């Protein structure tokens, strides 16, 4: 499993890109809306709480490889059930501090999935501004991300695709 994080100043454009341009399937969200336009408006409401924050949106991608033996890079057969995809994304968000506590201590997020012949991607669009107005820390974020992804690779019996597959 490979993980990438892209940082943006706003979630509205990102959620439209993932759902509309990439054609991702919306799997889960803690927001009330279900369309890209309405989700974008919901994200904007909480981003306005902290206008001084320059980087309020993260687009996190987990790529899970699945290739046939005939593929020029060889076979790589990693697969998760729909429930495991959700659990992987949810645990990542919890361990990175986006879903700490109950209720308003959580960040808004959207989980969506794309699938091609060779891989499945889990896309998470998440706001650093929590619903209570606090902000998820980005201190030592790269180290925390690496630690959490390694833990999830082990927990879900996934290969680290940066070194294999």
List strands and helices in order, with pairings.
Layout: E1 2-8, H1 12-21, E2 25-29, H2 36-47, E3 57-67, E4 76-77, H3 82-95, E5 107-115, E6 119-130, H4 141-155
Antiparallel strand pairs: 1-3, 2-5, 3-4, 3-6, 5-6
Helix pairs in contact: 1-2
Protein name: MobA/VirD2-like nuclease domain-containing protein
InterPro entries: Endonuclease_MobA/VirD2
Organism: Dulcicalothrix desertica PCC 7102
Biggest beta sheet attributes: 6 strands, antiparallel
Specify the number of helices: 4
Shape: globular
List how many beta strands DSSP finds: 6
Briefly say what this structure is.
The protein has 165 residues and is α+β, with helices and mostly antiparallel strands. The chain contains four helices and six strands; from the N terminus they run E-H-E-H-E-E-H-E-E-H. Strands 1, 2, 3, 4, 5 and 6 form a six-stranded antiparallel beta sheet that branches.
Task: Give the key terms.
165 residues, alpha+beta, BirA Bifunctional Protein, domain 2, 6-stranded antiparallel beta sheet, 31% helix, disordered C terminus, Endonuclease_MobA/VirD2, MobA/VirD2-like nuclease domain-containing protein
Please provide a written account of the structure:
Strands 1, 2, 3, 4, 5 and 6 form a six-stranded antiparallel beta sheet that branches. By secondary structure, this protein is an alpha+beta fold. The protein is built from four helices and six strands. The chain has a single domain (2-155), classed as BirA Bifunctional Protein, domain 2 (2-Layer Sandwich). The protein starts with a strand and ends in a 10-residue tail after the last helix.
């Amino acid at each position: 499993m490979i993980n990438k994080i892209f940082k943006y100043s706003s979630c509205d454009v990102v959620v439209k890109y993932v759902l509309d341009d990439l054609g991702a399937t919306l799997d889960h969200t803690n927001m009330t809306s279900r369309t890209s336009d309405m989700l974008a408006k919901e994200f904007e409401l909480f981003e306005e709480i902290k206008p001084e924050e320059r980087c309020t949106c993260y687009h996190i991608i987990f790529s899970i490889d699945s290739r046939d033996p005939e593929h020029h890079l060889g076979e790589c057969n990693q697969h998760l059930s729909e429930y495991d995809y959700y659990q992987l994304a949810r645990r990542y968000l919890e361990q990175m501090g986006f879903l700490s506590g109950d209720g308003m201590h959580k960040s808004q997020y959207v989980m969506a999935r794309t699938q091609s012949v060779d891989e499945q991607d889990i896309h998470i669009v998440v706001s650093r501004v929590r619903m209570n107005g606090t902000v998820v820390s980005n201190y030592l974020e790269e180290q925390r991300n690496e630690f959490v992804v390694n833990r999830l690779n082990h927990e879900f019996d996934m290969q680290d695709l940066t070194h294999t597959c």
